[in-house]
Structure formats: structure tokens, C-alpha cells
Amino acid sequence: MRRNRKVKIVATLGPASSSPMMLDRLVHTGVDVFRINMSHSTHEKARELHAAVRFCEHKNRHPLGILYDLQGPKFRLGEFMGGKAAVNVGETFLFDRTEQPGSSERVFLPHPQIFDAVEPGHELLLDDGKIRMRVTENKAGRIAAQVLVGGALASRKGISLPDTLLAIGPLTEKDEADLAYGLELGVDWIALSFVQRGSDVADVQKRIQGRTSIMSKIEKPSAITDLAAIIEASDGVMVARGDLGVEMPVEKVPGLQKMITRMSRAAGKPVVVATQMLESMISSPVPTRAEVSDVATAVFDGADAVMLSAESAVGQFPTEAIAMMDAIAIEVEADPSYDAIVHATKIDPVPTGPGAIAAAAHAVSQTVDLAAIVCYTATGSTALRVARERPGLPVIGLTPVPETARRMACVWGIQSILTNDPQNLNDMVAKACRIAFEEGFAKAGQGILITAGVPLGSPGATNMIRIAYLDDKGATVAG
What we know:
The protein is of the alpha/beta class. It contains 17 helices and 22 strands.
């Protein structure tokens, strides 16, 4: 089950990809992490999907991550008389608290938080940005807005507020229940929607108390404003380009994607690029050339993972979509310019002992002709530090903790292998050499670099580098 690429693949589960046979095919084709979208899943369905992934993992003896994506707050309009109404450019449209069917002049808005926060000059986006308005007045339970882009507006369509910081957290009552159930299941990552500020993530971190990892979805302009604090409070980050492209000018999204990827990598936090990567493969067995270029750009940027949504959840060609993403990643990483592009932006070493050890491991791997880097890690922190450096060698993450192996499934370059803790330093070197040999990462006569924390089993105490060479049976011959 060894991957021939460093970037990881996340696939969303759905009707097209949930059967045991299809899960098995997708894993063999290249999926590293499966996403459960709680916007469309009940607790019963989430339990079934979780059990199916764990069965597939056991069958293939290959750690698989589960990303449990919370829905987050959704803001929608009330009903229109006849189901829809036309709003025209230049006219004034009203949002009020009156629970009566709307017209071309007004509609019920059942969200008091919006009335409390929106100000004149703020923009309103309706129906995924198809209709745009600018607020001219907000008083007495009534918001007046000038129509900038008109059209037909239907009942229950969504409303977004890119300029408005709402006084709410990222968890609704539904999300609270879904989060509790996800923790009970033992999912590996929680994808947190509607993150506006770093304190949003910190509050949820207090709730989960280390029972899982949080991946913050960057999908709002306010999140960009407080991005450094959000990354610091998160365990990982997702570039949710769909919603981000609705609330911000679409031409800004590529630059933001690069910025978020760069900042996340500098912080040593895995970053996933998501939304519409191979959108045409929902109904076509081949992608467009533009989509191929889009996936390639994310790989060149050094993203930890790329994600499929509807392509794998409801698409007609889920296996082909995974195979295409796998092929694109392999081709990009083999490109002669890949290493130079990934390292074009200098990432300074983290000014700690473990950070310096990880940077040194990368430097040694560039100087000495070695076959692989082996990281002993209980919590995943050692492997994360090494992955942050984006080394040119395969990185083997050895851990006795299944949860750690699963979390590392979305981290760039890490090949997670479950193994018992070594008894001493000699056993540690021998075990690393044997596994690298048996798994096909190193051949007789080749060397590997080993990094770990001593004393063994000490979380977060990376403080040792060792080079060892293999004989024709995978045993250590020098070091």
C-alpha cells in the first residue's frame, strides 16, 4: 500500500463511494483520508461510514484518516409568495422580521444576529453570490439594501455577509450534537466550518480536550483577517475555495490559496486544498485541462493534501477521479522544477530543539546519499516537524499509536506504519532498518536517517539523529 507520491488525497464519502467494495477500490487507487460530510449525514449514517472505513483499514493493514466535517451555521431567507420573486438592479429591497411570504420588495430574514451586526455599506450575497446587494440602512428590525446584481430570488436561498463579523461561534445546536457523536466514534479530524477568528477555534479546542484534531476551514473574509491566530489555534487548515470564492472576488482566491498554504506550512500545520478540483469528473471520465492544472498548482505549492467532494461522493467516476488525482501528483512531484518551486519560499527553522533537529535532518538528507528518513513518533509531532521541511526523501512515520498513524494520513510525505516502541537505541536502529527494507524504501547498501526523542516514548522531545546502513537482509551494518 506504499504511495508513490508525497501529497495526500482526501475523498468525500457518499452514495457513489460508500460500499465496502468501492471503499477498497478507492484505497487501492490512492485515497489516504475519507471525509464524512455532516451537512448530508445522519448519526446513523456516520456510524456506518466510520465502521466501513475502519474495516477497510483493518483489511488492508493501512492506516486511514477520517475527516468529520461539521456543517456550521447556515443563513437562509424566508419564503416567497409563489416560491420566488424578481429583484431588479438599482431598486431597494427590504429584509425584515415579519413572518409573511416575501415579494419583489421584501422578505423575512429569520436571523437576529444579522440585524445586530450588519451596517450600512456592507455587502449581502444571495444564492451563492448570484445576487448582490449593498446595505443602505439598518434600524427598527429592518435592513434596506440596494440591488447591485439582480435576478430571480427563490425561497430559502442562502445569504452571506462577507463584510460583517457576526457575534456567533462556529457551532450550532446541530453541530454540538454532531461533534459529541464524532468524538464518541473516535474520528481523527474535525473540520470546523464558519471560522471567523482564532478564538472560535480555541473555544472548540477547550471542548474537545485533545480527543481529536481540528482542521479549520478558511472560507470567510474575516478568517483571512485573523488567519495567523486561526492557524496557531488549529491542528490543520483547509482552503475551502468554494465558499471563499463566493464571499471574496474569485480572482483573489488563487493568491489566498498560496498564502494560506505557505503560512500553514511555516507553522507546521497540514493544509488541505479543497473544492471543485476535478468538478467535471462528476459526469465525465476525464477532467478538463484547466482542472489538471489546478490540482498541479496545489501540489507545486506544497499542500499536504488535495480533496475531492462531489466527484467521489455522488459522481459517476469516483475511482477514475482518484486515479487522475494520483497521476497528476506523481507527475508533478517528478518534475525537475518541483523541488525548487516547493522550496522557493524560505521556511525558517522553528527556534526550538526539536525544530532544529528536523531542519538538520533535512540538511543531512540533502548532503548524504540516503534512501529514507525514519521518524519514531508517539504523537505525530516529530513526523510533522520533518514533513514541514518538505524533504526529498520518503518519510516513514513509525508509531505504536493507531490514532497517530491515522492523523498522519493527511500529512505531506508521511508513510505511517504501526509498530511497537523499541526496547533501546540498538533495537530502535535495527527496527527502523528492517522496516525500511521490508517496505521497499531502502535496499542493501543504502542508508537511512533516523530521528526520534530520547528517552524513547517521550512526547514532543525530538532530540536525536542517527544514520544507519543496511545489509542484504535489512539488518544494520554501520551507523
